[in-house]
Amino acid sequence: MSLPTRDLSTRLLLNLAPWRNATTWRVAFSGGLDSTVLLHLLAHLAKTQSLPALSAIYVHHGLQAAADAWPQHCQSVCGALGVPLQVVHVQVQPGASLERAARDARYGAFVEATQANELLLTAQHRDDQAETLLFRLLRGAGVRGLSGMPRERVLGRGHLLRPLLDVTRAELEAYAAEHRLSWIEDPSNQDRQFSRNYLRHQVFPVLTERWPQATATMARTAAHLSEAQGLLDELAHIDLASANTANEFDWLGLPSLELAPLVRLSAARQRNALSHWLAALTRLPDSDHWSGWDDLRDATGDARPVWRLAEGELHRAGGRIWWLSGRWLRVPPPVGLWTDPSTTLVLPENGELTITGQIPAGPLQIRYREGGEVMNLPERGHRDLKRLLNERGVPGFVRGRLPLLYRDAQLLAVANLRGLDGNEQEGWHLQWDPLSEDQGLS
Predict the structure, then answer these.
(1) Per the annotation, where are the binding residues for ATP?
(2) Is the pLDDT of residue 96 over 70?
(3) Which of 6, 188, 234, 351 has the most CB atoms less than 10 A away?
(4) Are residues 91 and 217 in the same domain?
(5) Which InterPro entries does this chain map to (predicted)?
C-alpha cells in the first residue's frame, strides 16, 4: 500500500473512530467517483480492522434513461468488494428545483433505511464544502447556511456522517487512479444549467487560477461559521428554556412556546431562537418572509394571526405560539352515531375517543361545533358553548375539532375540559386522545 493510500485510510479511520460501536456502516453509494473511493477504502479497511457491518445503498431517481444501467454497475462493484447493496427506487416530486426535489427524495430513502445505532456515510469532500459555501453565499444565506454541510447529524433513528470533508477531490482522483477503480460519469454533472455544476466548471477554475488555495480557504471559513452557529445554538437553548413552559393544553401534544419570554428578547435573538426551534419542524423562511413573525408577535385584541411556513403554520393563542401541520390543518369529517360507547371510537383525521366510567344511556352521537351550541350545567343553567370555551381559554384552532357528546339534541359533554367533560354524579368522563402522528415533526 503506497503512502498516499495509507495516509487516506488512516485519516478516514481516525474520522470514523467515534462511531466504531455502531451496528452498521451504510455507504450512500451512487457509483460515482467519490462514493466509489469511500466504499473501496472501507471494504479494504474491514479486512484488517474490526469494523461494524458494512453495506451500501443506491437510490435510483429514474430521471434519465442512462441511469437505468447504473444499479447493475453498483451491484457489480459491491459484489467484487463483498459488500451487500440495497437498491431503492424513489419518485421525485415535480417542483421549481429538480436538484432539491431529487435530494429530498434521496434523503427520504436514507431516513427510511437508517435504524437506531446505524451510521449512513456520504462521500462529500472538501471541494464540495467550498462549493456549498459559495452557492449559499450567492443565495443570501445566514450563518447557519454558510456553515456548510455538517460533518455529522441525526438521520432518521441513526446518524449521518461525512468522513471525507477534509479530503480534496484531487486526492480521491489519485486514489481511484492508483487502484484502477471504475465509476459512473453522470452526464447531468456537466449540465451548466444546474447551479452547482456552473460553479464547479465555470467559477471555481477561475478562482483557483488566481487563488490556488481557494477551496481550502473557503472550507476553513465554513468551519469557522459552523463554530459560530454552535454558539448561536447555545444561545437559542438558553432563550428557549424560558419559553418552553408547561400549559394546561399540553395534552394536545403540539409543539408550543410561551410568547412573553420571546418578546422580551431583541429582534435578532427572537429570530435566532425561533430558527433553532423551527428547524426541526419545517424549512426555514428566508429573510424576506420573517415579516410573518412580526405580524404574529404584534397582533392585538381578538386577532388570530397565522404565519404560514413551508411545512405547516404557526398560530397564536392563549399567550403562546403553536405549531400545526399535517392533519391539524385539515377539517375532520363528521362522525355521527357512536354505536358502541363501551369501546374506543376512532375519529377520522382526529385521534381517538373513549368514555371512562359508567356509560351514559344512549343513543349517543359525536359532533363538532357548528355555532350556537348550548350546554346545561348544574347550578349554572343553560350556557352558550362559545362563552364556556372562552372562559377556559381554549385555542381557536382546537375548537372546531373538539369532540362533543350528544344524546339526541342535548349536549352532554365536551371532551377533556374539566367540569364539561362528563357527569361527576353519574361517574363518567369523555376522554379525547388527539392526533399522535403526522404533525409535521421531523
Answers:
(1) 30-35
(2) no
(3) 351
(4) yes
(5) Lysidine-tRNA-synth_C, Rossmann-like_a/b/a_fold, TilS/TtcA_N, tRNA_Ile_lys_synt, tRNA_Ile_lys_synt_N, tRNA_Ile_lys_synt_subst-bd
